[in-house]
Design brief:
187 residues, alpha/beta, Rossmann fold, six-stranded mixed sheet, 5 helices, 6 strands, 34% helix
Length: 187
């Protein structure tokens, strides 16, 4: 007789004006059986942060996935869900706060601390980085830093603009979210 591990409960926090591609990727991966999980709540950043804390309490979520969420998560929520809030950051977060990440070509990767969305992608281009990339990390009180669960890289092409680069990186971000959740669902 084999026993299947209990499904993870995921609360997904989204940006109301976003494209929802991470949410769709997670839903598709659950439907296809790649992630042993269920979505217990989808919460939009139109909600007040005090309401969000109460909503999360009701979900009994094992993990909270920030998927385009644009609001600051209150300290008490970070503390309560330590190592359970996953954040996708459009930059390459180092393993230690004073560290660096190397791109596949061994050039220094950009962290893009404090940047998100188009601003972060534009920074890759402005800094003439050879690669753009994203990290998924557990959210901590250190802004845009925490234990890294995975990274993805995208080679920057000569003709790239924000839209073309972000389109390719976004696909890799979606895949990275699934890889990380797949690992977590097997633990």
């Amino acid at each position: 007789m084999t026993f299947q591990k209990t499904k993870l409960k995921l609360a997904i926090l989204v940006h109301e004006g976003g494209t929802q591609t991470n949410l769709k990727a997670i839903r598709d991966a659950i439907d296809k059986g790649k992630i042993n999980a269920e979505i217990s709540a989808v919460i939009s950043d139109t909600e007040e942060t005090a309401e969000v804390a109460g909503m999360l309490e009701k979900t009994s979520a094992d993990y909270i996935c920030l998927a385009g969420w644009k609001k600051i998560i209150p300290s008490e929520v970070i503390k309560k869900y330590e190592n359970r809030i996953l954040n996708l950051h459009p930059g390459l977060i180092p393993d230690v706060i004073s560290g660096d990440v190397s791109n596949p070509d061994n050039t220094k990767a950009l962290w893009n601390k404090g940047m998100y969305g188009d601003k972060a992608i534009q920074n890759f281009l402005d800094q003439k980085s050879t690669y753009a990339g994203s990290s998924i990390h557990f959210l901590t009180h250190n802004f845009d830093f925490g234990p890294v669960l995975g990274r993805t890289f995208e080679k920057i092409e000569q003709n790239d603009n924000v839209e073309s680069l972000y389109a390719r990186l976004k696909k890799k971000e979606n895949d990275l979210y699934i890889e990380v959740l797949e690992k977590l669902s097997k633990n």
